[in-house]
Recover the amino acids of this structure.
């Protein structure tokens, strides 16, 4: 099949064959012990290779991070902030190349890949504006008790494939701003944009501060087990999160786990189906549904159920799906073959259970891992599509009769990342939102994240939080200093 000329131009300009991307260890660009192929999900073909770090190279990276940490921590907070702000400039200067890499490796349309780079820079800027000052907990005739926060040492970061930069850069910022150094392992499916960023960042940071090693799941396990790493910040599936927790137990590492979600949205009877259809559609289908906090279950009051299904199905049928370099494309492919199979298997299960398909329901008849945007109704809450996290462009729309029932069904999940409630009476909707067992509950919006507000999952969606001073403190050791008067 002919690919869009812009894709060819991106590949020509990036010159990934002549100048392959490298590991970053101790300030140096290093070749891996071997190289592995990276596949473009829009073609299902490899288009580049990435370095596979050996366990010895992981040790080198951790040792370099450990050596660099005391001097980095000794720099004043304001100086670390300035260094990190230079990384935001780097992201913005290199935006187009990074966006090309994201589209090639992850599949999302180029304008959305550009947004991802810009968002990573904006989150960085908002995060570094924060501070974790010393707090006075008590001051009286007996003396003064202060709460300080100290860096932990070396942070290990492990990231997934759905947002290769926006889930990687903030971990680097949390770790470095708070005086830690870091070793990052990006997803083997989408290592390239992160590797490029880390490689270019070396010129702006002291050697050993930011190290990046790419490789498979075993490398992730070795990172989580490593005795010289004090904390793991992991974003990925709940299944892997449990393994990371077990691997970290040997050295009682601090953990931030940002895991899966099966986010519910509740549409109350006073909502306006036409007004909410587009934002609901975006919140379920953006990034082809591959967002941890996308809407994955939509509970609609029975009076509006038909109208909402219809409005969503219209959009699902009309939306432009295709390769990320094709102009006008809104939704790209599912990122990898395994995930593609999982989503199709979930759709088969829905078909066997007699679901009604309002739109989509099958793979697109073209190369690559494309699935037609799918809107389904008539499923019970114990069907796979409702009970599991599908992580694809597929939305079940469920009907409810009273609000208590909707809240109970929304909460009947082991996950609790985010949720939303939609209705004209905002205070009433906010009261319902307050009953959702989640980390973030929104009214008349979803997919909401602000780098100065804490973000973290309830129940099995995670442990700890990122963003805001609260998120920064998860990368630090609370340290009470108690001095008599
Ligand atoms: P994944 O869990 O398969 O992989 C994530 C990372 O973990 C990869 O780098 C992988 O190599 C590594 N890994 C795998 N096995 C490991 C092990 N035993 N020890 C250490 N590391 C290991 O996740 P994924 O499929 O890449 O990403 C999709 C999942 O991520 C979805 O469940 C999604 O909801 C979740 N996610 C969560 C958030 C959030 O903030 N809560 C954000 C984005 C994605």
């Amino acid at each position: 099949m002919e690919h869009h000329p812009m894709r060819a131009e991106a590949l020509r300009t990036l010159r990934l064959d002549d100048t392959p991307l490298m590991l970053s260890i101790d300030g140096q660009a290093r070749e891996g012990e071997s190289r592995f192929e990276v596949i473009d999900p829009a073609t299902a073909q490899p288009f580049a290779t990435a370095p596979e770090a050996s366990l010895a190279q992981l040790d080198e990276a951790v040792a370099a991070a450990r050596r660099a940490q005391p001097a980095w921590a000794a720099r004043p907070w304001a100086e670390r902030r300035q260094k990190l702000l230079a990384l935001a400039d780097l992201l913005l200067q290199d935006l187009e190349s990074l966006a090309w890499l994201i589209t090639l490796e992850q599949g999302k349309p180029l304008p959305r890949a550009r947004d991802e780079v810009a968002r990573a820079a904006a989150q960085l800027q908002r995060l570094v504006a924060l501070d974790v000052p010393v707090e006075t907990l008590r001051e009286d005739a007996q003396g003064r008790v202060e709460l300080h926060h100290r860096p932990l040492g070396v942070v290990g970061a492990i990231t997934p494939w759905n947002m290769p930069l926006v889930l990687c850069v903030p971990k680097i910022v949390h770790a470095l701003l708070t005086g830690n150094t870091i070793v990052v392992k990006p997803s083997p499916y989408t290592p390239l944009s992160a590797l490029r960023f880390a490689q270019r960042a070396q010129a702006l940071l002291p050697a050993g501060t930011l190290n990046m090693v790419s490789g498979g799941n075993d490398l992730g396990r070795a990172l989580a087990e490593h005795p010289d790493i004090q904390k793991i910040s992991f974003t990925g599936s709940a299944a892997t999160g449990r393994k990371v927790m077990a691997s970290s137990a040997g050295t009682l590492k601090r953990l931030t786990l940002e895991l899966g979600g099966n986010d519910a949205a509740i549409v109350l009877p006073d909502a306006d189906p036409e007004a909410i259809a587009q934002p609901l559609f975006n919140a379920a289908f953006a990034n082809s549904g591959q967002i941890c906090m996308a809407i994955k279950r939509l509970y609609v009051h029975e009076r509006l159920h038909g109208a909402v299904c219809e409005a969503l199905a219209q959009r699902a049928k009309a939306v432009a799906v295709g390769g990320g370099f094709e102009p006008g494309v809104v939704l790209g492919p599912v990122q990898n073959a395994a995930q593609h199979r999982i989503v199709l298997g979930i759709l088969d299960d829905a078909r066997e259970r007699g679901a009604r398909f309002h739109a989509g329901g099958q793979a697109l008849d073209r190369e690559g891992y494309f699935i037609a945007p799918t809107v389904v109704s008539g499923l019970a809450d114990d069907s796979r599509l409702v009970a599991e996290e599908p992580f694809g462009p597929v939305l079940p729309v469920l009907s409810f009769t009273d609000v208590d029932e909707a809240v109970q069904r929304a909460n009947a999940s082991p996950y609790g990342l985010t949720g939303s409630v939609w209705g004209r009476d905002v205070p009433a909707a906010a009261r319902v939102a307050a009953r959702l067992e989640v980390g973030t509950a929104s009214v008349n919006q979803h997919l909401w994240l602000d780098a100065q507000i804490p973000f973290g999952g309830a129940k099995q969606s995670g442990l700890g939080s990122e963003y805001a001073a609260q998120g920064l403190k998860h990368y630090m050791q609370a340290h009470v200093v108690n001095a008599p008067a």
About this structure: Residues 158-162, 167, 185, 187-188, 216-217, 220-221, 224, 235-237, 240, 243-244, 247, 258-261, 292, 389, 391, 417, 457, 462 surround nicotinamide-adenine-dinucleotide (CB under 6 Å). Residues 321 and 331 are 5 Å apart (CA to CA). The domain at 263-450 is CATH 3.40.309.10 (Aldehyde Dehydrogenase; Chain A, domain 2). The chain has a mean pLDDT of 98.
